Amino acid sequence: MTFWKHHGKVIMSDEQAREGPLGRKVLYVLLASLLLVGLAWLVLEAWVYRAM
Questions:
Q1: Residues 2-31: pLDDT tens digits?
Q2: Planar angle of CA 22, 26, 30, nearest 5 degrees
Q3: CA end-to-end span of the chain
């Protein structure tokens, strides 16, 4: 993350302020994890339904 100092104040761009300290990569990891958990849930439900 790049910050600029201007008269003792730290200035960051709008995009950096929007992303927060974690950044966009963490958002992608969270979304991918959510999709994988949802897919695993559906597979498990289908497997249990067939066993009945």
A1: 555 556 666 767 776 666 667 778 889 999
A2: 140
A3: 54
For residue 8, which phi and psi values (nearest 5 degrees)? Answer: 85, -5
Task: Give this prediction's pTM.
Answer: 0.55
Chain centre distance of CA 37: 14
34 contacts 27 by C-beta, under 8 angstroms: no
Q: What pLDDT score was predicted for residue 27?
A: 86
Cα dist. 49→36, 41, 52 in Å? Answer: 20, 12, 5
Residue 25 belongs to what H/E stretch?
helix 24-51
Distance CA 40, CA 48 (A): 12
